[in-house]
Amino acid sequence: VQLQASGGGLVQAGGSLRLSCAFSKTITSIAYMGWYRQTPGLQRELVAAMISSGRTRYADSVKGRFTISRDDAKNTMYLHMDNLEPGDTAVYYCNCLWGGVNHWGQGTQVTVSS
Fold first, then answer.
1. In what order do the strands lie in the sheet with 76-81?
2. What is the mean pLDDT of residues 36-65?
3. pLDDT tens digit string along 66-112?
4. CB under 8 Å to 1, separation ≥6 — which residues?
């Protein structure tokens, strides 16, 4: 499966962005998918994840501001980000676990100015 992330950009603090991750196959059979982010010199960290039951998990730093969702008809996962902070600046990657293998998108840059 291939993942294509998009939607990043430059936004002022307090603003919003929606990231999209398009999958090359139907996502109805994918049990785990999520968004991660990475800043230079730091490890990639989980931002939000969703399992097939619809259950979600968020990093403490984004709870109440970010929402992960999926549209099975469009084979797309989203990350809606509100009230963005300069600390959210990072490259965001979409990810899924399928066939016992972790699959990653190419990353999309999000920059939040103060």
1. 3-6, 17-23, 76-81, 66-71
2. 96
3. 999 999 999 999 999 999 999 999 999 999 999 899 999 999 999 99
4. 23, 24, 25, 30, 96, 98, 99, 103
Measured CA to CA, the distance from residue 1 to residue 21 in angstroms comes to 12
Residue 88 burial by Cβ neighbours in a 10 Å radius (0-12, 13-18, 19+):
buried
Q: Which amino acid is at 111?
A: T
**Residue environment code for 25-60, b if the CB has 16+ CB neighbours within 10 A, otherwise e:** eebeebeebbbbbeeeeeebeebbbbeeeeeeebee
Taking only the tens place, the pLDDT of each residue in 4-33 is 999 999 999 999 999 999 999 999 989 999
